[in-house]
Amino acid sequence: MNIKEFINCKSKVINKELDKHLPAEDIHPIQLNKSMRYSVLAGGKRLRPILALEAAKLIGGQEEDILPAACALELIHNYSLIHDDLPAMDDDDLRRGKPTNHKVFGEAMAILAGDALLTYAFEIMTKIDNVSAEQVLLAVKELAKASGSKGMVGGQVADILAEGHQIDSNELDYIHRHKTGALLKASVRIGAILSGANDEQLKALTTYAEEIGLGFQIVDDILDIEGDIEKIGKDVGSDLDRDKATFPAIYGLEESKKMASKTCKRAKEALNIFGEKAEVLLKLADYIIERDY
Amino acid sequence: MNIKEFINCKSKVINKELDKHLPAEDIHPIQLNKSMRYSVLAGGKRLRPILALEAAKLIGGQEEDILPAACALELIHNYSLIHDDLPAMDDDDLRRGKPTNHKVFGEAMAILAGDALLTYAFEIMTKIDNVSAEQVLLAVKELAKASGSKGMVGGQVADILAEGHQIDSNELDYIHRHKTGALLKASVRIGAILSGANDEQLKALTTYAEEIGLGFQIVDDILDIEGDIEKIGKDVGSDLDRDKATFPAIYGLEESKKMASKTCKRAKEALNIFGEKAEVLLKLADYIIERDY
Q1: Which residues of A touch B79 (CB under 8 A)?
Q2: In the predicted model, is pLDDT for residue A240 greater than 80?
Q3: Which of A193, B46, B221, B241 is least enclosed by beta carbons within 10 angstroms?
Q4: How does DSSP classify residue A98?
């Protein structure tokens, strides 16, 4: 199995499901629905949904039961990108090779589209079938904690406050574990929780997710220096311009690359208990570290 | 029972619960937690939580079981105020007699504090005890639908798009039923759902909530013209300045006052099936129409 082809194929399934869930463009208020669909359906690797689906499959869950939760994770990710790109935040013009949401729909609509996507994520969670209400509620809690002030939003705040300041490795760790890591971890855990994982399975998958979450962000930081704008679809070098806290800034480029490899190794080791059944998740760990976009 | 004293007394219970739930100011990231607490604990009538608690009591629910949901409703209301006040939206400087969130903490933090409060509302919903997981999930669905693109956010978008345009009474109705009405309706319904209301009870309470929601907004529009800035705690006349769609602008001031009275009458009639047990909700309907702030 070629992992890039696999991701491509899976992302089509997820895109179809997202398209089905999002409000149609011809219903009121049209501008809002257009704005929501513009960002969500602009592409992207759909890593979070894929991680949720694969963690679920590893535990014995059914893809169709997990798909609403997979979509909810992608909606949260997309709302955070729309708000991060706003002029008051990172002020970015380009995302996935297209103008950012506020460049097309204006700031007010971009703020509201983000709000609506975040809210809709929780509505979709209530559409999960064939799973007990107790398990769905646990997954809702996991999603909310990972996305809010103790998770993603907290990391984004720390990231903004760190701009232009010297920060230590502890604070960098906090930022990355929260800003990117929290939702990636929740993706894996939600897939596992909804499929009835036991404590040992959940613990192993949590370690896996924490390591790939950290690795993902280290590689993101490296790509901001070495990446190809054509492939990444957003501005390169913007972290440096903004004096952002990054792994290469604190540890240097070579050491950062070594650290990324180590996270990948630790992520894969954590899945030993599953044996060969974990093949896709193992390949996803390699892919996350070796990707060039 | 004096209804103003009752609201005052209940709001203290709710404020204490909100204070307990919100992250402390001395934990990381401090700026975010300060910003969240600043807006939520700035006061306000706490109408939505009170409606949820009273609807629950009418059906036989226990206050302590409903309190987390009551707080969630208030958090959603507060996030929407923070985002509505932003420069890209209504650009307001004053809220509840204090500088708006972005005036104190800056735009980026105000956007993120709103995001965190919205997310936290759903986390709190998962803390509801002594109610079946199925009922809690129904309440989560109700909250998400009322707050998102098919509810409050949809109404806010339509309101912004209507600025400076001639709109008809249908569109005004859409804006008000969604922007303010949806969350007020959800407040009453969530209290009822979590207390196990039957179809007849839920239908009656839904009609009550729809009518007071509409009445609430008509009175808000009237207060923007006739209100006392000292009492309201926000700028007066700002609807006119912004060429906003309002009831007085379409129907005139006197006709708007008559319409508000009629909504109150219909709201109270809907509760006939409950007899005297509905006393507090009946007085709340009067209060909403007769308030001067």
Answers
A1: 115
A2: no
A3: B241
A4: E
CA-nearest of A155, A176, A168, A146 to A84 is: A155
Does B149 sit within 8 Å of A32, measured CB to CB? yes
pLDDT, tens only, B5-48: 999 999 999 999 999 999 999 999 999 999 999 999 998 999 99
Do the Cβ atoms of B140 and A125 come within 8 Å? yes
Kindly report, residue by residue over A227-238, the tens digit of the pLDDT: 766 665 666 666
Alpha-carbon Rg for chain A, nearest whole angstrom, is 18
Task: For an interface test with A, give the residue of B123, B127, B159, B175 to mutate (most A CBs within 10 A).
Answer: B123
Interface residue of B79, B119, B140, B168 to substitute, partner A, most A CBs within 10 Å: B119
Longest dimension (CA), chain A: 52
Q: What is the pLDDT of residue B1?
A: 74
Q: All domains of chain A, ordered by start, with CATH?
A: 3-290 (1.10.600.10)
- What is the least distance, in Å, from the CA of B163 to any CA of chain A? 13
**pLDDT digit string (tens) for A76-109?**
999 999 999 999 999 999 998 999 999 999 999 9
- Write out pLDDT tens, residues A146-166: 999 999 999 999 999 998 888
* Chain B residues within 8 A of A88 when measuring between CB atoms: 106-108, 111
In the block, residue with structure tokens 């991680």: A51
Nearest CA in chain A to B139: A126
* Residues linked to residue A8 through DSSP beta bridges, in sequence order: none
What residues of A are in contact with residue B109 (Cβ under 8 Å)? 157, 160
Which residues fall within 8 angstroms of residue A220, CB to CB, at 6 or more apart? A180
B contacts of A134 (beta carbons < 8 Å) = 133
Comparing CB atoms, the residue among A116, A122, A133 nearest residue B149 is: A116
pLDDT, one tens digit per residue, over A119-149 is: 999 999 999 999 999 999 999 999 999 999 9
- State chain A's mean pLDDT as an integer: 93
**Nearest-angstrom CA–CA distance, A281 and A265:** 12
Residue in chain A nearest B128 by alpha carbon: A137
pLDDT for B244: 75
Q: Mark yes or no for CB contact B150/A125 under 8 Å.
A: no
Task: Centre a 10 Å sphere on the Cβ of residue A4 and count the other Cβ atoms it contains.
Answer: 11
A-chain residues near B89 (CB < 8 A): 108, 111
Q: Per-residue pLDDT averaged across B115-137, rounded?
A: 97
Residue among A142, A116, A112, A149 at smallest CA distance from A128: A142
Question: Could you give the ipTM of this predicted complex?
Answer: 0.95
The two counts, helices (H) then strands (E), for chain A are 16, 2
Contact: B115, A29; criterion CB under 8 Å: no
Closest CA to B290 of B256, B264, B255: B264
**Is residue A137 within 8 Å of residue B126, measured between CB atoms?**
yes
pLDDT for the residue numbered A292? 76
* pLDDT for B225: 86
